[in-house]
Amino acid sequence: MPMTERGDSSMLYLNGAFMALDQGRVGVEDRGFQLGDGVYEVVKVVDGRLLWMEDHLDRLAWSLGEIRLYGALEGHPLHQILPRLVEMSGVVSGTAYVQVTRGVAPREFALPNDTPPTVLAYVRRDGFPGHREILDGIALHAVEDIRWARCDIKSTNLLAAVLAKHAARDAGAGEVLYVSPEGLVREGGSSNAFVFLDGVLRTHPANNRILNGITRQHVLELARGLDVRVDETAVSFDDLAHAEEIFIASTTRDVMPVVKVSASGRDDLIVNGGRPGPVTLSLADAMRAGIPAAIGAPPPVTLSRN
Ligand code: PMP
Asked: Domains plus CATH for the chain?
């Protein structure tokens, strides 16, 4: 297979073959395409290394089990394929995207018998928030969560998220904040939400209403290590008015301070005077410090004043 110039082209793994991303073809009757019958993962590439790959592949296996797509990864050793894609693409900073669908079968909702899954993965270059963007923080736009009741599965059914993200962008916000019909803060559009309230770091419990982010799990561990009190119980949207700090966390955004929350028909809420708070910055620093350590690079310059 011809090597493309390093860093020039995204490389794709599709059902056993490697090719340039734009050469990939999937059948019209693929159940991922027609029914959203599939799951996915996004893994961060830092300094040419895949961050927390095992955690992501474990969650992928779990998602596959929850949608009864058993044995889909047999013959697709992703823990070897993903590093190979990074190497072939020459990507230093970016993301690896993995998607597994129930494959091509005549269109019927009920599960087909013995259809080979579609397994694909590719790596793309991407930049991540730098010091300036982190210190500027982002705005969230709150919307009612109209997604299904299995948000713990990382499903490719993302239409509710597509519409919510569009609404957030229209509102001038950088991320969605999903609020339950009962008024509880659930998570971000593609991130988990954390609220520092009354001296306790609160986040929604890892149940069927949110995706249990890999970054979320690392944030909780870091917070405990920093002696920050943690409570996995949801905060009400009204409580955000008293929040000392708010941040979101995800693979592509790490720990990102939230400086404003908007919602249609309500006044904007300015968080901590519109600046990232000390707990958020300590966690952002701890996260950033841990990432290079995990991949054997020197630690970054700190953001917070100790
Ligand atoms: N919640 C949702 C709905 C998401 O799409 C994501 C991003 N995959 C997250 C949370 C954060 O998860 P992670 O830290 O694993 O990227």
From this structure: 11-125 (3.30.470.10), 131-295 (3.20.10.10)
